[in-house]
Description:
The structure is a single chain. By secondary structure, this protein is an alpha+beta fold. The protein folds into three domains: 12-132, Acyl-CoA dehydrogenase/oxidase, N-terminal domain (Butyryl-Coa Dehydrogenase, subunit A, domain 1, Orthogonal Bundle), CATH 1.10.540; 138-242, Butyryl-CoA Dehydrogenase, subunit A, domain 2; 253-401, Butyryl-CoA Dehydrogenase, subunit A, domain 3 (Up-down Bundle), CATH 1.20.140. It contains ten helices and nine strands. The chain has helices at 19-39, 44-52, 79-92, 94-112, 118-131, 253-284, 298-326, 333-358, 368-377, 386-406, and strands at residues 63-64, 68-69, 134-138, 156-160, 163-173, 179-188, 195-201, 207-210, 224-233. Strands 3, 4, 5, 6, 7, 8 and 9 form a seven-stranded mixed sheet that branches. Helix 8 crosses helix 10 (386-406). The N and C termini lie far apart (58 Å). GO terms for molecular function: flavin adenine dinucleotide binding; oxidoreductase activity, acting on the CH-CH group of donors. Residues 269-383 form the Acyl-CoA dehydrogenase C-terminal domain.
Amino acid sequence: MTHSSPDLASPLSAISDLDPILASLTAEFSGRAAEHDRQASFAFENIARLRELGLLGLTVPKIFGGGVPSAFGGGEVTLSLAARIIRAIGQGDPSTALVLVMQYVHHIHLARDDRWPASLRERVQRDAVENGALINSLRVEPELGTPARGGLPNTIARRTPEGWRLSGHKLYSTGIPALTWLSVWGRTDDDNPSVGPFLVHRDTPGVKIIESWDHLGMRASGSHEVIFEDVLIPLDHAVDLRPPAAWARGFDPDQMAWMTVLVASLYDGVAQGARDWFAEFANERVPANLGAPLASLSRFQEAAGVIDALLFSNAIILQKIAEATDRGDYPSVRDCNFTKYIVTKNAIEAVEHALELSGNPGLTRSNPLERHYRDVLCSRIHTPQNDVILTSAGRDAFASRALREVA
Length: 407
């Protein structure tokens, strides 16, 4: 089937065929990914492009709370469609895709979360659709590390007559150069503190960004440090305070499924980019002693087959989990964890196969494969990490066997 040239100036909602749009975005973003990676600079142009296409508000519901049609309704897309978008953008520039993952997951959760004040929720949703405003969580701290492994945050909010006064220090604040809304993980200063997100507008006085992000991979994600110095926010911006034990359950089922599938799709997209480069390299490289393309050699053909088998496995798993979620049949925590583990492991292995056979060209900075490898390795540090996934699954396996024996 042939496609007419896509009108990239049109809003996404007016475009009937998404495939040429996504292919164009992949090519456009990949064309400047190397420069952003080299300079560790944030790709503002990519965010502007996503805003122009209406992609930043896609997971905002068309129907607002109480079944009332929303005047600012977004795309309200399925997880299956969102995963396609993330995979294509991840193939072009995974740092940009990671910012979009966090945007999509936050708005899916926000649409279902009745703990937020309705007016505040609507304000953030409207801002996403009308202005392309971005939101992300700021959770990691120098002393705490990731909250997923337990512990109270050192970001502290003091209740005052005029509002909350928030002070703290956050690391790895992905997308901070372009964020409008910061969901800051903190605790109250009570003797028995409550914990939860405090919503802070980026322009609030006392918010200070330290541009310290200098990482092996995902170098264009702008994941800098943020300091909060006695930042004043309204009392209703403490949107979901709970006792610490109440957070032990982790994400809600829908939020966990969305985070799992979209993060995994991002890194699957990186592996697809590596696969495409390797195929082109092997077809075009003609060593003088061979007199034929490397693609004619059986060991290159076998490697390409292994890579495609790994990516095929990823596609089947991601499709299964996404379609189940879209039906409301949310996967278990174990299934989400296994999805993240298997898909990212396959993605890393696929890139490593390409790297091994391409030799020195694959590790040359002028070729994208070296960057793909650094980027795909970052999949290991996303929560949940492999040790948590496997230990939890093993513990459950032994527990279930013991229960059967008792029965």
